[in-house]
# Entry
Amino acid sequence: MSNSVISVISRFLEEYTTKTSNKLKVVDAYLFYILLTGALQFLYCLLVGTFPFNSFLAGFILCVGAFILGVCLRIQINPDNKGDFLSISQERAFADFLLAHTVLHLVVINFIG
Amino acid sequence: MAEHHSVSDSKHKASAVNIGASLSGNGRSSPAGTVGSSPTGALSTGIAQPAGWQSLLSFTILFLAWLAGFSARLFAVIRFESIIHEFDPWFNYRSTHHLTINGFYDFLNWFDDRAWYPLGRIVGGTVYPGLMVTAGLIHYVLNLLHITVHIRDVCVFLAPVFSGLTSISTFLLTRELWNQGAGLLAACFIAIVPGYISRSVAGSFDNEGIAIFALQFTYYLWVKSVKTGSVFWAIGCCLSYFYMVSAWGGYVFIINLIPLHVFVLLLMQRYSRRVYIAYSTFYIVGLVLSMQIPFVGFQPIRTSEHMAAAGVFALLQAYAFLQYLKDRLTRQEFQTLFFLGVSLAAGAVFLTVIYLTYTGRSTLYAKIHIPIIASVSEHQPTTWVSFFFDLHILVCTFPAGLWFCIKNINDERVFVALYAISAVYFAGVMVRLMLTLTPVVCMLSAIAFSSVFEHYLGDDMKRESPPIEDSSDEDDKRNSGNLYDKAGKVRKHVSEQEKTEEGLGPNIKSIVTMLMLMLLMMFAVHCTWVTSNAYSSPSVVLASYNNDGSRNILDDFREAYYWLRQNTEEQARVMSWWDYGYQIAGMANRTTLVDNNTWNNSHIALVGKAMSSNESAAYEIMRSLDVDYVLIIFGGVIGYSGDDINKFLWMVRIAEGEHPKEIRESDYFTPQGEFRVDKAGSPILLNCLMYKMSYYRFGEMQLDFRTPPGFDRTRNTEIGNKDIKLKHLEEAFTSEHWLVRIYKVKKEENRDPLVHSPRSSSSRQKYTSKKVQDPPRFSNGEL
# Structure
């Protein structure tokens, strides 16, 4: 069983590195960085405690939000998904991404206290 | 005549063609398009651009709907004056007034020490600021442009203006769901439907006036973001959701309906990337936005009502990840391990969330068992009469619309079906929640009416132009199909059939159309009648009509409140039952002990205990609370049935809840179990403070030569205790029709009165002292 798990994972990684375009790989690297930041924040909260709870929430939700928005951007600019998003060009997807980030950052800065 | 007919038909067809992406129920877009071109060929001189006429017509109809909705809500203002109604709006008005004078930050951090007397109230953290901020902003902008409108007028007319905006957002939402015709019908319905008017008349300055607009607009943006899958619309939905959270506690409905929609879409195998983008963005950005309101605070991640949204979010992430992997790997690889393991984990997470929701603090059911909440009339279950009264024929046609939606299902119609079902359930539980049912009933009835009209109006045009081809086709078919050629008979058969088909069609269609139009006209008449008679009373001013039709205005409430305002000192404290707290604070501007916020049950129980005890015990409670004045409502002179004696049993019950040893509800009934105020009434009732204050000096008053003095018109009996003497209170004010009575609490006496007991001159003289030179001694009573 574990053999097939490892083989599946390795096959998946190999296909990933060959088939995905560079643009998507950049977005994936960004997503991985956000994931690390979020995990670090959560770890800090577990270790030190939740005292300024609104600050912890603000930071953590910002990480989750940025991750989600990055995933949405990746979905929208992926040429395989073009059929789903006929009215959304690549530039429009990026502009939406920027707008969403502006709103998210404004709210988080208000919340962080 | 013909030109009008073809103009309307071309617009009908233009609207049908313009739908584009949405699948409509008529399914006639293609033939309508081809037919549309032929009759307008000759008459196209008058209609240069059908699309232009269509937008003009839509704009005019929406403008007229706004105007109709605004005007229908003005009955109270025209009959009485521009005044804030009821009870809750007075608190909202006072807060808005505070906001306009002191500014936004002072309002957010306001600690009100003139309510809940010894305790005070943290207004900033216990109120939904959206309403006050909206009114304050409009007032600020108008005054900036030097249009000096008083804040009271802004507050009175805010709800009618927002009803027009609600019509427009309902139009947009229905247009996304069905087509433009249904959208216009829905806008017209919601402009005048009584279920919505009841909470948004001019003068009713309450959260629902702006919340229903925010609700419909949020739903419109949600449907748009599910349809397009664009982050822009999802962010718009989040901002509208933020406005809704600031406006009303009913935002919990949104945050549960949208996850339910996504969950049902997942179950129906309708998952798509657009849904993923829309919901993920909405959840995260909406979550952090909703926590900006101080009253909401950290509830979205703590309470059970918000857990469904989080659960669906986690489930959706897992599902999307699985879909992504499924696209990458082959079937066997995928099926071997990942699917079962990961979906089990996701399912377990979801089930624990559901479990926590159901065993956690479920506010709706717990509230029913607290007496204060149970005593509010709006929280009673709904009767079928209310459904018909508030919605008229819409409640009959709305299941038809629901069936149309389900028959032609797509992603957004799943949403409206879920909205309809959940709204019907909640409206059946509480009268107050009829308001959330009203928008969806308007939308679905509009869809039903629109489908009926399209079916019965649109067919006429189709039948006019191609009948020549049709009959020749049928002719050929019949000739070829017949084995033996009885030429005469066949031809007669064909021509008869032609005639009968054409004859049946227009008659039925015009009958049905006429019937539908009559129903709509009766609906409009009913709405106007209900608004005028049932929902336009300010509650602060009462009006009665004499035999000759002339109007008698009873302005006792305002008379009493203004007496308080002008004749008592600034810091005076007024004790009354909690119903009148907001009005006293708003109109009389005095400190109150308890008000309509009812957040502190023990404090209200103290007031109830004071009202139901005898005068001395009540005096102790009133001294400990520093009460200066007591205000009660007494309806015995005019027969007003909402007075404090009728509410008295609720006071006793609430007091009994906190002080069961001193107050017992059974003490106030006769031995036979009746609640009577005449001679046969319970002596504890006849000596309690409320009874004494209500009927003080009423025993001398004879209203009518046929009835004895002291005849209570509301209870229809002669009162039992006519000779009332008050020891610790004195009467300060009684209004013109004895509706409001104010008593001043006397300060304590300077010294206790001496008890005059008769001197006992018996045993003391028997003892005589044997010592004569003793110094004189002072002893009691002998000097």
Summary: The CA atoms of residues 33 and 88 of chain A lie 26 Å apart. Chain A has one domain: 21-112. Chain A is about 80% helix and 0% strand.
